[in-house]
Amino acid sequence: MSEPRVAIIAGGRTPFVKAGKAFKDLGPLKLACHTVKGLIDRHDVDPAAVEALAYGVVLPEPGRPNLAREIVFEAGLPRSIEAQTISSYCITGLRTITVIADAIARGRIEVGCAGGVDSLSHSSPDTFREPTTGLSMGEHTELTRKAWNIARKRQDEIALASHRNAIAARERLSSELLPLLGMEHDPGPRPDTSLEALAALKPVFEENGTLTAGNSSPLTDGAAAVLLMSEQRAKIEGREPLAFIRAMEYGAIDPEEGLLMAPTVVVPRLLARASVKLEAVDLIEIHEAFAAQVLANVKAWEQGWKAAPLGPVDFARVNVSGSSIAVGHPWSATGGRIVTTLAYEMSRRDASYGLVSICAAGAMAGAFLLERS
User: Fold this and answer.
1) Do 245 and 282 form a contact (C-beta atoms < 8 A)?
2) What are the distances in angstroms from CA 160 to CA 33, 163, 185, 221?
3) Model confidence over 217-227: pLDDT tens digits?
4) At 373, which helix (H) or strand (E)?
5) Whole-number Cα distances in Å, 24 to 17, 18, 95, 309, 326
6) From 33, 90, 113, 140, the catalytic residue
7) Residue 57 and residue 126: Cα distance in Å, rounded?
8) Which one of 2, 297, 342, 349 has the lowest number of neighbouring Cβ atoms within 10 Å?
9) Catalytic, out of 33, 34, 113, 359
10) Of the listed 34, 140, 287, 329, which one is catalytic?
11) 329 included as an active-site residue
12) Phi first, then psi: what are they for 20, rounded to 5°?
């Protein structure tokens, strides 16, 4: 018998807010509860139907080692919901979706919720340093942009596109947002930015470097959640899936080869296993830790590095609603945000395939292929 197809039914998140600002006093548990309870309420889901919750956090709240179970209690959900907490740097949100998707595909459950949260208002300088190398992610990315000859101007162009696309998508994204503390939209996207303004910013990680505050993702607070069901359960409840999860893939490389270059291994493997060519993918979501990392990943896909070339990447199909440079990057919440935004956009366009690529500290990466057919 074939496995049940896993349907993405809905997603929701808080606005992503710069660390130290509006959400600085909330903490992970309150942010997470807002997304899980808000998602269930907005989409008229019977809480008793939710069988499992997988939720992630990189910076845990003291005294709450299993944040996911505390969400069940704090949000007033049925205590029969089993819950687990996951931590895997910036691919944490994807990992939680994988846990629920695998449980549905194996027939153990029919309905589950996945997501992630991080409050970078409560981070410390050591949080951003790679334990195995002693370098920050930005310092590692400066090494990568040198190795791959990534120009400053092209980085700023990626950053500008992120802001412009996010501004243009504001109304579309409003259906995904769960307002909190008077915040109804992401405050990060800037309608007034320009290449000239971005070019005037000084390097952050290296005196003669090219990575700036403008072409790097900002420190952000926020949370996201995704509702998943088996295809059959969705039919029974009369719900139209946004998309289905066709394939999921994870992998890692040696950090010395490029801390954020693992997508160059993972994405080719994902597409090969799904027997789908890159040219057949309608929409591509590449997490923007840094614009330089995006460009290095794409260059490696196009040229072939540890895998056969995938062919040219059409940036008109990439991050069409903006991404982490403009919107923000609360680490564990990014996977849920990207999968949600992609699934809704695929539904609007009736797109056949959508690709998710997320790099992570530790030289890891995760990738999803979504489909509508």
Assistant:
1) no
2) 33, 5, 19, 22
3) 999 999 999 99
4) none
5) 9, 9, 26, 44, 19
6) 90
7) 17
8) 2
9) 359
10) 329
11) yes
12) 85, 0
